[in-house]
Model the fold of this input.
Amino acid sequence: MYFDLKNEKLDWDYIFEKKRELRENAKKGIYPSQCEGCFELTERDWDNEDYISHLTAGHIIKCNSRCVYCPTGRIKEWHNTEQEYDIKPIIEELTNKNLLRYNGSLRFVGGEPTLIKEFDWLVDLFSNHNVPEIYVPTSGIRLSKSLCNALEKVESAAIVTSVDAGSKETFEKIKGTKFYNLVLKNLKTYLKHSKKKDYVISKFILLPNYNDTTEEIDKWLASCKKMGLIEVQFDAEHSVSSSTECENKKYINRTLKMLEYAEKSAQKYNIKVTSFLAFMNRAKAIYNKQVEQFNAIQDTVYDNLLLINDEELNSKVQNGEFSPKRRVKVEYNKQNKNRILMLLRLGFDFDLILNEFIIDKDILEILKTSNSTLTSQNPFIKLFSQILYSF
Done:
């Protein structure tokens, strides 16, 4: 859900009604099919009360950098326009209605969080209520006293700054500002105030033709060691890291080599590394494990799922009575359509049999959100349907 507010009040009854619906569906195993097998899913006890304990605040419009890899920085009508909304009244209303608890986290997202009008007020509020976690990704250009205090008081207060360079010249090319030395100075100040020295983190995003050299990485790691930082993050520029079919495909192998080099070099400085490469390897290992599990189980076709009632079906899904493949072979028609869509929400895939040529947007939705196929005994219907629903 999202709301485009222009001085209206949020309808909290409506929000929590929708939250309860999502929660009850999830208890029954009903969730978007694209969540199936996600390695971020965790098992924990359900909390049925209505409240908010995790708050994320941010805007994408105002920043004191203009990084070459930032998509919004290139949109002139957005970049550094004024914030048109106020966060404070929303937080005050949550507090007055006893809907906000400080047992979770306060997190920020971009543009530059420290330029949000209510940034210091929010950080002070949550710090004074002893929230367990505060997370701030920041350019490091503006030094926040409130954030310094939070680093001293909050158990898990962390900041991450993408420096992306080991020299002033490279920094200015990437960040579009001339504050390299100021950023390093402010990081050092944050580190001085932090309870946990590994919670002040400098980040290095590898960019083809900008900083993807061993020399730049070595200079950057040396500056991190000089500042006293003990943890860093490595990442790849989004168009390289997000897709194997990106325009920068020719740089992917070089990027991976640089990431491997960075991890090895950091060991010389006794610096801990968390990186895109580590994340990718973790995801790959979990994926391979899932593949092994899938291959160990024979393909199962659940034709009888169209016959049992919804309550029994939900119970079977919740009790894990199906193999991970969860595949249904079924004719697509008006009588079966609603049940097929319900099975889609439960994470099933389909071999959809078409006995006639059908134009239906729900077929496209099924194919987009699951690993399903179209088939027909009539070769012409099969061919034309596959062409129509290709995407």
Q: What stands out?
A: The chain has two domains: 1-36+298-391, 37-287. The longest strand covers residues 100-109. The chain has 14 helices and ten strands.
